[in-house]
Amino acid sequence: MNKEIKIIECPRDAMQGILDFIPTKNKIDLMKSIIKCGFDTIDCGSFVSSKHIPQLADTPEVLRALENEDLGDTKLLTIVANERGAVRAAAFPQVTYLGYPFSVSEMFQRKNTNASRQDAFFRLKSIKDIADASSKKVVAYISMAFGNPYEEEYQRDEVIEWADKIASLGIQIISLADTVGQAQSEDINYLFSELVPKYPSVEFGAHFHSEPAHWQIKIEEAYKAGCLRFDGAFYGVGGCPMAGNDLVGNIATEHLIQFFSGKEPMHIDLKEAQNSMNLARSIYA
Length: 285
Known about the structure:
11 helices
Protein backbone atom coordinates (compact mmCIF):
# COMPACT_ATOMS: atom_id res chain seq x y z
CA MET A 1 0.00 0.00 0.00
CA ASN A 2 1.30 3.45 -0.92
CA LYS A 3 2.02 5.83 1.90
CA GLU A 4 0.51 9.27 1.63
CA ILE A 5 2.61 12.15 0.37
CA LYS A 6 2.80 14.97 2.90
CA ILE A 7 2.99 18.49 1.52
CA ILE A 8 3.96 21.21 3.94
CA GLU A 9 2.93 24.70 2.85
CA CYS A 10 5.40 27.31 4.13
CA PRO A 11 4.00 30.86 4.13
CA ARG A 12 6.45 31.65 6.94
CA ASP A 13 9.37 30.91 4.62
CA ALA A 14 7.73 32.85 1.82
CA MET A 15 7.13 35.96 3.93
CA GLN A 16 10.26 36.18 6.06
CA GLY A 17 12.40 37.69 3.30
CA ILE A 18 9.82 40.27 2.17
CA LEU A 19 10.98 43.69 3.35
CA ASP A 20 7.70 45.60 3.41
CA PHE A 21 5.69 44.59 6.46
CA ILE A 22 2.63 42.54 5.55
CA PRO A 23 -0.38 43.65 7.61
CA THR A 24 -1.29 41.16 10.31
CA LYS A 25 -4.86 40.89 9.03
CA ASN A 26 -3.54 39.81 5.62
CA LYS A 27 -1.46 37.09 7.24
CA ILE A 28 -4.44 35.88 9.25
CA ASP A 29 -6.64 35.79 6.15
CA LEU A 30 -3.99 33.82 4.27
CA MET A 31 -3.55 31.29 7.08
CA LYS A 32 -7.30 30.76 7.36
CA SER A 33 -7.46 30.18 3.62
CA ILE A 34 -4.55 27.71 3.62
CA ILE A 35 -6.10 25.74 6.48
CA LYS A 36 -8.99 24.85 4.15
CA CYS A 37 -6.64 23.28 1.57
CA GLY A 38 -5.88 20.05 3.44
CA PHE A 39 -2.09 20.32 3.63
CA ASP A 40 -0.49 18.04 6.19
CA THR A 41 1.26 20.96 7.92
CA ILE A 42 1.43 24.74 7.62
CA ASP A 43 4.73 26.38 8.54
CA CYS A 44 2.89 29.44 9.76
CA GLY A 45 5.19 31.59 11.87
CA SER A 46 8.37 32.20 13.79
CA PHE A 47 9.42 32.84 17.36
CA VAL A 48 12.88 33.95 16.26
CA SER A 49 13.87 37.41 17.52
CA SER A 50 12.02 40.16 15.69
CA LYS A 51 15.37 41.96 15.33
CA HIS A 52 16.39 39.24 12.89
CA ILE A 53 13.03 38.43 11.30
CA PRO A 54 10.90 41.59 11.71
CA GLN A 55 8.30 40.39 9.21
CA LEU A 56 7.13 37.70 11.63
CA ALA A 57 7.05 39.68 14.86
CA ASP A 58 3.26 39.37 14.84
CA THR A 59 3.23 35.55 14.92
CA PRO A 60 1.55 35.50 18.37
CA GLU A 61 -1.27 37.69 17.06
CA VAL A 62 -1.72 35.47 14.02
CA LEU A 63 -1.86 32.35 16.18
CA ARG A 64 -4.37 33.88 18.57
CA ALA A 65 -6.61 34.64 15.59
CA LEU A 66 -6.45 30.96 14.60
CA GLU A 67 -7.35 29.68 18.05
CA ASN A 68 -10.93 28.74 17.14
CA GLU A 69 -10.27 27.60 13.57
CA ASP A 70 -11.15 24.02 12.67
CA LEU A 71 -7.77 22.68 11.56
CA GLY A 72 -9.08 19.27 10.53
CA ASP A 73 -6.04 17.03 10.02
CA THR A 74 -3.73 19.97 9.33
CA LYS A 75 -1.02 20.75 11.86
CA LEU A 76 0.64 24.11 12.57
CA LEU A 77 4.41 24.52 12.82
CA THR A 78 6.38 27.50 14.07
CA ILE A 79 10.14 28.02 13.87
CA VAL A 80 12.15 28.55 17.07
CA ALA A 81 15.83 29.34 17.47
CA ASN A 82 16.31 28.85 21.20
CA GLU A 83 14.66 27.69 24.39
CA ARG A 84 12.91 31.01 24.99
CA GLY A 85 11.26 30.84 21.60
CA ALA A 86 10.29 27.23 22.22
CA VAL A 87 8.56 28.12 25.48
CA ARG A 88 6.64 30.92 23.77
CA ALA A 89 5.56 28.69 20.88
CA ALA A 90 4.63 25.81 23.16
CA ALA A 91 2.15 28.05 24.99
CA PHE A 92 -0.16 27.98 21.96
CA PRO A 93 -2.35 24.87 22.02
CA GLN A 94 -3.00 25.04 18.27
CA VAL A 95 0.72 24.59 17.50
CA THR A 96 1.76 20.97 17.01
CA TYR A 97 5.36 21.30 15.83
CA LEU A 98 8.36 23.32 16.97
CA GLY A 99 10.75 23.58 14.05
CA TYR A 100 14.44 24.04 14.80
CA PRO A 101 17.10 24.83 12.16
CA PHE A 102 20.31 22.93 12.84
CA SER A 103 23.10 23.50 10.33
CA VAL A 104 25.98 21.29 9.22
CA SER A 105 27.69 24.56 8.27
CA GLU A 106 29.37 26.06 11.34
CA MET A 107 29.29 29.53 9.80
CA PHE A 108 25.59 29.37 8.94
CA GLN A 109 24.73 28.02 12.39
CA ARG A 110 26.34 31.07 13.95
CA LYS A 111 24.64 33.41 11.47
CA ASN A 112 21.24 31.80 11.93
CA THR A 113 21.06 31.05 15.66
CA ASN A 114 24.19 32.69 17.14
CA ALA A 115 25.54 29.34 18.32
CA SER A 116 28.19 26.80 17.40
CA ARG A 117 27.00 23.48 16.00
CA GLN A 118 27.74 21.75 19.29
CA ASP A 119 25.90 24.38 21.29
CA ALA A 120 23.03 24.24 18.78
CA PHE A 121 22.77 20.49 19.26
CA PHE A 122 22.54 20.90 23.05
CA ARG A 123 19.94 23.62 22.46
CA LEU A 124 17.97 21.21 20.27
CA LYS A 125 18.00 18.68 23.10
CA SER A 126 16.58 21.31 25.47
CA ILE A 127 13.92 22.25 22.92
CA LYS A 128 12.98 18.58 22.64
CA ASP A 129 12.52 18.50 26.44
CA ILE A 130 10.30 21.61 26.28
CA ALA A 131 8.27 20.04 23.48
CA ASP A 132 7.83 16.79 25.40
CA ALA A 133 6.66 18.64 28.50
CA SER A 134 4.11 20.55 26.41
CA SER A 135 2.86 17.61 24.32
CA LYS A 136 4.46 19.10 21.21
CA LYS A 137 6.72 17.53 18.62
CA VAL A 138 9.99 18.74 17.13
CA VAL A 139 10.81 19.01 13.45
CA ALA A 140 14.58 19.28 13.09
CA TYR A 141 15.85 20.87 9.90
CA ILE A 142 19.38 20.06 8.80
CA SER A 143 20.30 23.29 7.02
CA MET A 144 23.00 23.41 4.35
CA ALA A 145 22.53 19.65 3.98
CA PHE A 146 23.65 19.80 0.34
CA GLY A 147 26.43 22.38 0.46
CA ASN A 148 27.04 25.96 1.53
CA PRO A 149 28.12 29.29 -0.02
CA TYR A 150 30.96 29.89 2.46
CA GLU A 151 33.65 27.66 0.96
CA GLU A 152 33.42 25.36 3.96
CA GLU A 153 34.17 21.75 3.08
CA TYR A 154 31.00 19.78 2.39
CA GLN A 155 30.86 16.09 3.24
CA ARG A 156 27.56 14.31 2.86
CA ASP A 157 28.55 11.65 5.40
CA GLU A 158 28.77 14.45 7.95
CA VAL A 159 25.07 15.11 7.28
CA ILE A 160 24.38 11.47 8.13
CA GLU A 161 26.45 11.72 11.31
CA TRP A 162 24.43 14.71 12.50
CA ALA A 163 21.18 13.00 11.51
CA ASP A 164 22.28 10.07 13.67
CA LYS A 165 22.80 12.39 16.63
CA ILE A 166 19.47 14.14 16.10
CA ALA A 167 17.61 10.83 15.80
CA SER A 168 19.26 9.70 19.05
CA LEU A 169 17.31 12.47 20.84
CA GLY A 170 14.06 10.77 19.90
CA ILE A 171 13.17 13.36 17.26
CA GLN A 172 10.97 11.67 14.69
CA ILE A 173 10.86 14.23 11.87
CA ILE A 174 14.10 15.38 10.24
CA SER A 175 13.99 17.56 7.13
CA LEU A 176 17.05 17.95 4.91
CA ALA A 177 17.26 21.54 3.72
CA ASP A 178 18.83 22.72 0.49
CA THR A 179 19.17 26.17 1.99
CA VAL A 180 20.85 27.94 -0.93
CA GLY A 181 19.56 25.79 -3.79
CA GLN A 182 22.71 23.97 -4.80
CA ALA A 183 21.77 20.31 -4.17
CA GLN A 184 23.11 17.84 -6.71
CA SER A 185 21.14 14.77 -7.79
CA GLU A 186 23.73 12.29 -6.55
CA ASP A 187 23.83 13.88 -3.10
CA ILE A 188 20.03 13.93 -2.79
CA ASN A 189 19.82 10.28 -3.78
CA TYR A 190 22.68 9.25 -1.51
CA LEU A 191 21.39 10.96 1.63
CA PHE A 192 17.78 9.82 1.41
CA SER A 193 18.76 6.32 0.27
CA GLU A 194 21.00 5.99 3.31
CA LEU A 195 18.78 7.60 5.93
CA VAL A 196 15.25 6.43 5.07
CA PRO A 197 15.91 2.68 5.49
CA LYS A 198 18.31 3.24 8.37
CA TYR A 199 15.64 4.91 10.51
CA PRO A 200 12.21 3.46 9.66
CA SER A 201 10.63 5.24 12.64
CA VAL A 202 11.92 8.66 11.53
CA GLU A 203 10.13 10.69 8.87
CA PHE A 204 12.66 12.34 6.58
CA GLY A 205 11.54 15.39 4.67
CA ALA A 206 12.92 17.56 1.89
CA HIS A 207 13.00 21.33 2.20
CA PHE A 208 14.42 22.36 -1.15
CA HIS A 209 15.18 25.83 -2.41
CA SER A 210 15.67 25.89 -6.13
CA GLU A 211 15.90 27.93 -9.29
CA PRO A 212 12.62 27.42 -11.17
CA ALA A 213 14.25 25.28 -13.87
CA HIS A 214 15.72 22.74 -11.45
CA TRP A 215 12.91 21.90 -9.04
CA GLN A 216 11.67 18.70 -10.68
CA ILE A 217 14.91 16.75 -10.67
CA LYS A 218 15.36 17.47 -6.96
CA ILE A 219 11.87 16.23 -6.12
CA GLU A 220 12.26 13.17 -8.35
CA GLU A 221 15.55 12.15 -6.75
CA ALA A 222 14.25 12.52 -3.20
CA TYR A 223 11.01 10.71 -4.01
CA LYS A 224 12.81 7.80 -5.72
CA ALA A 225 15.04 7.48 -2.64
CA GLY A 226 12.05 7.13 -0.29
CA CYS A 227 11.17 10.68 0.78
CA LEU A 228 7.44 11.30 1.19
CA ARG A 229 7.47 14.68 2.97
CA PHE A 230 8.04 17.83 0.91
CA ASP A 231 8.02 21.53 1.83
CA GLY A 232 6.86 24.17 -0.63
CA ALA A 233 5.50 27.69 -0.90
CA PHE A 234 3.01 29.09 -3.37
CA TYR A 235 4.72 30.48 -6.48
CA GLY A 236 8.14 29.43 -5.17
CA VAL A 237 8.44 32.59 -3.08
CA GLY A 238 10.91 32.66 -0.21
CA GLY A 239 14.42 31.87 0.84
CA CYS A 240 16.57 32.32 3.90
CA PRO A 241 17.53 35.94 4.66
CA MET A 242 20.19 34.72 7.10
CA ALA A 243 22.17 32.82 4.46
CA GLY A 244 24.08 35.90 3.31
CA ASN A 245 23.45 35.33 -0.39
CA ASP A 246 20.73 36.22 -2.87
CA LEU A 247 17.50 34.52 -1.90
CA VAL A 248 16.76 31.33 -3.81
CA GLY A 249 13.08 30.58 -3.62
CA ASN A 250 11.26 27.53 -2.33
CA ILE A 251 9.90 24.76 -4.50
CA ALA A 252 6.50 26.01 -5.70
CA THR A 253 3.69 24.18 -3.94
CA GLU A 254 1.67 24.07 -7.14
CA HIS A 255 4.55 22.16 -8.75
CA LEU A 256 4.50 19.63 -5.92
CA ILE A 257 0.76 19.12 -6.31
CA GLN A 258 1.15 18.67 -10.06
CA PHE A 259 4.09 16.28 -9.71
CA PHE A 260 2.39 13.95 -7.22
CA SER A 261 -1.10 14.10 -8.69
CA GLY A 262 -1.96 10.56 -9.74
CA LYS A 263 1.21 9.12 -8.19
CA GLU A 264 0.30 9.17 -4.52
CA PRO A 265 -2.75 10.13 -2.42
CA MET A 266 -2.58 13.71 -1.11
CA HIS A 267 -6.14 14.74 -0.20
CA ILE A 268 -5.53 18.36 -1.21
CA ASP A 269 -8.63 20.40 -2.02
CA LEU A 270 -7.55 21.84 -5.38
CA LYS A 271 -10.24 24.52 -5.45
CA GLU A 272 -9.26 25.82 -2.02
CA ALA A 273 -5.58 25.62 -2.99
CA GLN A 274 -6.27 27.81 -6.01
CA ASN A 275 -8.10 30.30 -3.80
CA SER A 276 -5.12 30.39 -1.43
CA MET A 277 -2.72 30.84 -4.34
CA ASN A 278 -4.71 33.82 -5.58
CA LEU A 279 -4.68 35.38 -2.12
CA ALA A 280 -0.98 34.68 -1.67
CA ARG A 281 -0.22 36.34 -5.00
CA SER A 282 -1.89 39.56 -3.84
CA ILE A 283 -0.10 39.47 -0.46
CA TYR A 284 3.40 38.55 -1.65
CA ALA A 285 3.42 41.03 -4.56
